[in-house]
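Late entry, evening session. Most of the bench is empty. Finally got around to the prediction I had been postponing all week. Sequence below, unchanged from the version circulated by S.P.
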Amino acid sequence: MRNQSLNDQNPKSLAKLLKLLANENRLKILILFWDGQPRSVNTVAEEVGIAQSTASEQLQKLRVEGNLLIAEKNEKEMMYRPNRKMILEVIDKFSKYMKSCC
């Protein structure tokens, strides 16, 4: 789904995203970013209480598979921040889907 919008006629894209968010560590990581602040892998690992390698793997999945995070090199380390546009689009599409089906 990288760099793509969710398609209203494609429930597979929504299912893929929901599957991505079904992981407890990824969901905890995404919740960390609600404040909009950028974070390093080490900061995320510490705040969530997981190993640095696990944090790195989960951040990568949220960035590449979900396009929910943006990564930028900041001097010596990679910094992650929320992709607000995509997150808001996901919320909007899911809300519309739920209203139309339920």
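Two things to note before I forget:
Confidence is low (pLDDT under 50) at residues 1-5.
Residues 15 and 69 are 18 Å apart (CA to CA).
Will write this up properly tomorrow.
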